[in-house]
Amino acid sequence: MSIAQTFAKAKAENRSVLVGCMPAGFPTVEHSIEQMIAMHEAGCDVIEVELPYSDPVMDGPVIQKASDIALANGVRTRDTLKIIEAVASAGATVVLMTYWNPVEKYGVDAFARDLAAAGATGMITPDLIPDEAAEWIAASDAHRIDRTFLVAPSSTDERIAMTLENCRGFVYATALMGVTGARKAVSSQAPELVARIRSIDPEMPVGVGLGVGNGRQAAEVAAFSDGVIVGSALIRSVLEAPDRATGLRDLRALSAELAEGVRDR
Amino acid sequence: MSAETLPDLAGHFGRFGGRFVPEALIKALDELEAAYRSAKRDPEFQARFQDLLLNYAAVPSLLYRATRLSEALGAEILLKREDLNHTGAHKVRNVLGQALLAKRMGKPRVIAETGAGQHGVASATAAALLDLECVVYMGETDTQRQALNVARMRMLGATVIPVTNGSRTLKDALNEALRDWVSTVDTTHYLLGTAAGPHPFPELVRDFVGGIGVEARAQCLEQLGRLPDAVAACVGGGSNAIGIFHAFVPDESVRLYGFEAGGDGMETGRHAASITGGSVGVLHGNRTYLLQDDDGQTIESHSISAGLDYPGVGPEHAWLHDTGRAVYEPVTDAEAMAAFQLLCRTEGIIPAIESSHALAGAAKIAPRLREELGRTPTIVVNLSGRGDKDVHTAGAYFGLLDQVETVVPGENT
Ligand SMILES: Cc1ncc(COP(=O)(O)O)c(C=O)c1O
User: What does the record give as its pathway (chain B) (predicted)?
Assistant: First the structure.
């Protein structure tokens, strides 16, 4: 399913989309594929594959730790593309989240081409703002990859409007000022930001990320957003498990709980 | 394009620079840029900055004719004595400028990243002077290697936070400072330590340290009645080098040389030479040259000098390299340490190991320039800092430390 179809279907069902994030190659290539398919089966509508990067400034300690493990185990950009292919052919809607330098190093147009060939439908760029994205916009148009840029509570209305004009698929609203990582309470800045986005473009689906850790918080965020993005909490269930079977079981259980949450708004 | 008008409005030096950061930081960078533009035009701000430089930091620094070193190198060597500044390096200029800017923006807290601790100490100094809260991020590996500087920062009232992510060195401290800033921008100024990072930092830091070159140029005209043939500086992130280069860029007869840390030697892959041994990419908010693998993952740098041990470089240097206006070359640990010793023995000046790279570079270019010009060349070397902080490293390198721990207690009494 395309991103647009995924959001349209959820809207018809009067619920939010659940986006589950997992670094590629964490802890190994095979295991990360298994985890992503488990997340898909347990109710994640979109699998957000994160390309592990040495200097992930937007990410908190959990995602960085998982990325470091993946890199230490030798994951390469081409492995990430293989992982996407495996997860997409299992029927999941896949988007990639990546810092910009690995894309630039690969070659921007070649990357968009190979990403599309692997079956990803979109790409989230946490450290690329539209102002610097001319080459990416051209490549993603040429290869039909949806573009998700970020907006933040500190973004001016002008910047939100400019960013929305350059997004396709959905926009990523960072719910609070900070990096990724599960938090105890959902920020009050989030609903205000979503309202500002909607007043500028009522059509663009809004995914809200940063801080959701359980079904109750997913329901809270689902109440005012089109998509709930969860990363650190899912990764932690694998990271902190005593063994692999427990990790996979906890990952499925949390995915299912979150999937219920996005339907309970 | 001319160097005096760069960067452009979006912070680009040709294809370099710009802003590659999360959207959450854009407002803070815009605010910083606006505050800087207005401060630049404000005579009161400029007067306060100049007053602090003059009466607190002991700037302008001397331009010293190093006669015995000149003899040894076969060139007329003039040393820009930034080592005599308060806190012992050029960095005091940048921290005073930025701390004043933080005050002006009404931000009570500053954060900084540091490798060896030099920028951390300078930041803690400026924060103490201007009554700002100061938090310094430092890789855990570095806090252990540089325990004295950690103590210095604490004496000055700063909080030092050891960073345990990634390689636990400078680049990870920088990542952590950026993360802090994303969640504290309302109250916090990020006091970045070099002329790199997202726009407007490369421009702003260049301007705050730009006095080095303005002074050196005027001092040359006064002392020699002419400009030098070459200016040499070491390049880590690039602040002391851009600080001394900038005023000379329009003087086409003056050759500009930046010396990067060649570590164990370029052929070993263990170095910190981003321009001469790296490739173009994006790191820490700007497009520049950096050390990276085939996948665009940052490669850890290596240098005996902690202040040069960084896998990136400021975007203006990348641009000066591409245009050919400045020439960048690597200097190995061994070459730098030989120059370190030479300056100690000929001039009675113990230089920072960073600055020793510039001295070693001057030694390399002296015979070339002599041949090219057919006379003794005049070279201004930016002596960016003093070597007190490096006594342990250099002492160990040259085998000058008594093996205190092998002395059996009581045996000497
Ligand atoms: C004395 C001295 N020189 C040079 C440097 C390198 O930094 P930059 O390239 O920004 O001047 C440092 C950094 O710590 C330093 O302490």
Answer: Amino-acid biosynthesis; L-tryptophan biosynthesis; L-tryptophan from chorismate: step 5/5
